[in-house]
Amino acid sequence: MKKNIRLSLAAASCALLGSQLAIAEDKHDVGEWDVSAALLFYSEPDRVNATEPVISAKKQLDTDETLSLKLTLDTLTGASASGALPSNQPQTFTSPSGGSIGTTSAGDTPLDDSFKDTRVAVNAAWEKPISKDLTMVLGGNFSTEYDYTSFAVNSSFAKDINNGNTTLMTGLSLGMDMIKPVDGKPIPFATMQAGRDYGGNSDSVKDGSDDTKSLVDVIVGVTQVIDENSLFQLNYSLSSSSGYLTDPYKIISVVDPVTGATLFQNGAQSDLPTAVYENRPDSRLKHSVFGQYKRYLGGDVLDTSYRFMVDDWDITSHTVDVHYRWKFADTQYLQPHVRVYQQSAADFYTPFFVDGQQPTAGDTGGEASADYRLGEFMAYTIGLEYGQDNPADSWSVALEYYLQTGDEPAQAFGELKNLEIYPDVDALMLRVVYDF
């Protein structure tokens, strides 16, 4: 969930392999620092809230050589969907740490209200021309939070041909993430227990260990000037990740095979539902094709793009993104924004298990997740940005609304047909940027 929110917060950055791969367009006096400060707010009503201040700085080391630095701080609080089903009776869930429990009212989507985190990220990039028509960028980034640490290095090369009207680009990013779930990784499909009753006994559902995953991203692309007012960009990217790709905090509800009602465990905590921990494949390969068209219209700028993605999890997605920058009063502009996203479900997406049909605990060959982000859905973003460009400094304010909606699962039966299994998710995003 945290990854998804941060990607939403940074949507305007166009970071396929990280912002370090972008070739700088602005040239300034040697020795001069350009500094940009941004403050991003993200809010899902009754769910997650995030605040992200960002400081970026770029220094002109030589006529065509630059150093870029960026510092990001994320603070996330609120409640995150656990993957469990709503029920016709109240449910009690154990927090990921096992140190507390929370109660979900009848009919409500179960949320983990202990969702809190702070992340610090540092990015650096060095851009230098190798020859008259060839530019190199080397970069790296590091981020850390209480249960996750990430390292990555990247490089890209851009070559101008056809009298500078065509630019060929290729890039490579290598990353390593270290995942440190609270009290260790859960055993796949082990049943969630009450409180901290999951360690050091025969019924243990967590193995106490950490894990890692590696990431490799490759991109090749071409940018073509069409005429004096327009250009077109086409990129192909390959993204491979392997290792621990499971979300250690997501669970899957188990329901009665006759009534469809959520099962509950017997014993002292009778409102504790039967739910098991998810398990995802240990590798993922994604292919993406991205096309972008920009046109200058007498002071205004039209920016349109389309992205197609397919992976070996059987997810296919389409993204259409349109910005129109309307300039007025010399230095001021308004920029409306519309984005439409459509996604198919992963082949292992499972909104619930029917009792007796779920994999056994520890079955690492079984794969299933009830995470709604892996289901089939549509997402819409609309927004408006107001800004002012001055020779000395510039600033902008953007407000966007996001709505994600999906159909109720076709496999719902019995009591499940009367419950909202796949509720809409909406969010507000506010971004303030000041360059000086």
Descriptive keywords:
single chain; 436 residues; 1 helix; 55% strand; elongated; disordered N terminus
Quick overview of this protein structure:
The chain is mainly β and 436 residues long.
Description:
It is built from one helix and 21 strands. The N terminus is likely disordered. It has 436 residues and is mainly β. Helix content is 2%, strand content 55%. It is elongated, with a radius of gyration of 24 Å.
Please compute the radius of gyration using only Cα atoms.
24 Å
- Average pLDDT score: 88
Task: Return the string of H and E elements.
Answer: HEEEEEEEEEEEEEEEEEEEEE
Number of helices: 1
Spatial strand order of the main sheet: 1-2-3-6-7-8-9-10-11-14-15-16-17-19-20-21
Helix content: under 10%
Q: What percentage of amino acids are in beta strands?
A: over 45%
Number of strands: 21
Structural class: mainly beta
Gap between N and C termini: 33 Å
- Can you tell me the residue ranges where pLDDT is under 50 for at least 5 consecutive residues? 1-27
Global geometry: elongated
Largest sheet: 16 strands, antiparallel, barrel
Give the SSE layout:
Blueprint: H1 2-9, E1 33-43, E2 48-62, E3 65-81, E4 91-94, E5 101-104, E6 111-131, E7 134-145, E8 148-161, E9 166-179, E10 211-227, E11 230-243, E12 251-255, E13 275-277, E14 283-297, E15 300-311, E16 316-328, E17 332-343, E18 353-354, E19 377-389, E20 394-405, E21 425-435
